[in-house]
Amino acid sequence: MDKRKRSNFNQSKYWLDDSEHFDDKSSDEDTNVNHDSEDAEIPSTLQDTSDESDDGTVEKDSGDESDENSVDTESMSDEEPPRRRAKRKPQVKPTPVKIFSSKSGRQWTSKEPSKKKVPIANILRQRTGVGRPAADIQTLKEAFQLLITQEMVLLLVKETNRRAHLLLERWSEENPDEKSQWRDTDLEEMWAFIGLLLLAGVHRAKNETLDELWSMTNGRPIFRATMSKNRFKSLLQFCRFDNTTTREERLKVDKLAAIRDLWTMFLARLQICYMPGGSLTVDEQLIPTRGRCNFRQYIPSKPGKYGVKIFWCCDSDTAYPLNAEVYLGRQPGAPTAAKDKDRIRNLVKQLIHPWINTGRTITTDNYFTSAELAEDLLGVQTTLVGTIRRNKKEIPRELQPDTHRPEQSSIFCFDRQLTLVSYVPKKAHAVILLSSLHHDQTIVDEKKKKPEIILYYNNTKGGVDRMDQMVQTYSCKRKTKRWPMTFFFNIIDVGALAACIVWLTKNPQWNEKKCYRRRIFLMELGYDLIQSHLERRQHQPQALQKGVRIAMQAIGLTVATSQPNTVSTDTVKQRCHLCPRERDRKVVTHCSSCNIFCCPDHHKVICAVCSETFLG
């Protein structure tokens, strides 16, 4: 029995000693521990010993072993309890990779590309905000003159005077009894002309006639105080932007010759006065016009339907206009037009050319988006996000609309750095987007399960549309049949909007508590532009008409009391300033107001009462 006790003790000791090595899970464990089942926790030798002993031995030995076993059990539980075999984690089977083939032969896959460091095309490497020319502006007028420069207005003055002299000389030759002469306009008067256009836009008076604007009862005093209605009408009539005598030659190579010089200078100023953010938008604008124009477009989805189409590149955040290209069709004498898809790709690359290799993202609609364009832009470190038409050859059949696809579901496919997603907003419909910015299957809208690509597109697609909407809200456009004048009005509107964005970017606290800051900006800008001409007219020597004096007093100007035109005599004779030179009539009488010499045929004597009645 002692032998059995020793045997049992040794076996118990063996259990305790071997439990220290149980966690090793080595191949020696099965060799040292003799048991058939892998799940057994007690060695088989302990169980066999209890079965082979007789009854007496069992009673005596059990008492002895109980003490020993109790001690061993406590020490085993306190020091190092036996560890159960760890459960194996269920292995997740990898999702099978699907291959999508398109008609163009491009292969797409459902496997996401391996995630590496942020691509260089996604890193913005240029500062944003106002450009260097706008760093020192102090007034609203200076901000506006950054975009509509003095050089541009001088061109306008020069060509307007040229056209007016040409037409009036022709009129005088055809009507010798009704000769007419043109009084040259100058820089101050042209700035005042632009200021009145802006003020008319602020009052949303583009559909009001000039008679209503200059009316004594229902009109606005600022218009009567600045210039006469006939003068404003003459400036509208004779306003030109190029030399009309040489236009025919230039039209043979350029359909936009009538306003090309002004347009080129304007675009150059737009690009240097503001540095856009990381996202740009490319879209189109239609300038409504029904005038005769050989590149006029018909777009039934636009409010105006007919007009001149301009492709714009704008900042997605602020709607600042950056660059533009007018749709002219095929230019005269140009070689055979390229394929439509190549022409569109070249157009987008031309619009964004000043901002390539800067890590920006371009957002386009389905008119522009293509896989070839996205790959071209990646070559210049620029990414693309946009909707794409379903009939494109690079779209796999699996991404097309299907009645069996559930609502709010998405299918992603990848080709190197390009990502396609097809989202089902409602049954039997699908919206397909292409992105070279996103490279995963992220879903961010939990309610409608929209992919991140769609939300990014929705947030950045409206740059050009917002620019066009703001321009149309306070447009200075006047009714005209000449498309260059319609184009000029749009330049003034876009320039005023760009100046407002530059001013608010540089001065973010300017009227920050008011929700109509742009209206205030345009109102104050209009007054600043007409101020110089208004003061010159206020202090002119000849007496002002009564209506003009009342208008000036209404806007807060002090007007000197007019004096009656009297005639004084002098011993010195001079030629009458109002007679033709060939008459050579010399007189001694001159006007006491303007001091010009005038003959009896050109002066009248009136009393003070009549002077107050007729001259105000």
Give an overview in words.
This protein has 616 residues and is an alpha+beta fold. The protein has helices at 2-19, 28-32, 44-52, 55-79, 140-147, 150-174, 187-202, 210-213, 221-226, 229-238, 247-251, 260-272, 340-351, 371-378, 452-460, 463-473, 483-506, 517-538, 546-554, 608-615; strands at residues 99-101, 107-109, 129-130, 274-275, 279-288, 297-298, 306-315, 321-326, 361-364, 383-387, 410-415, 418-423, 431-435, 443-445, 450-451, 567-575, 586-591. Strands 5, 6, 7, 8, 9, 10, 11, 12 and 13 form a nine-stranded mixed sheet that branches. A two-stranded antiparallel sheet has the order 1-2. A hairpin with a 5-residue loop joins strand 1 and strand 2. Helix 1 packs parallel to helix 4 (55-79). The longest helix is centred in the first third of the chain and has 25 residues, at 55-79. The termini are far apart. Residues 101-111 have a biased composition (Polar residues). Residues 142-494 form the PiggyBac transposable element-derived protein domain. It holds the Pfam family DDE_Tnp_1_7. This is PiggyBac transposable element-derived protein domain-containing protein.
Q: Can you give keywords for this protein?
A:
transmembrane helix, membrane, PiggyBac transposable element-derived protein domain-containing protein, disordered C terminus, PGBD, alpha+beta, 20 helices, disordered N terminus
Outline of this structure?
Residues 101-111 have a biased composition (Polar residues). This protein is of the alpha+beta class and 616 residues long. It is built from 20 helices and 17 strands.
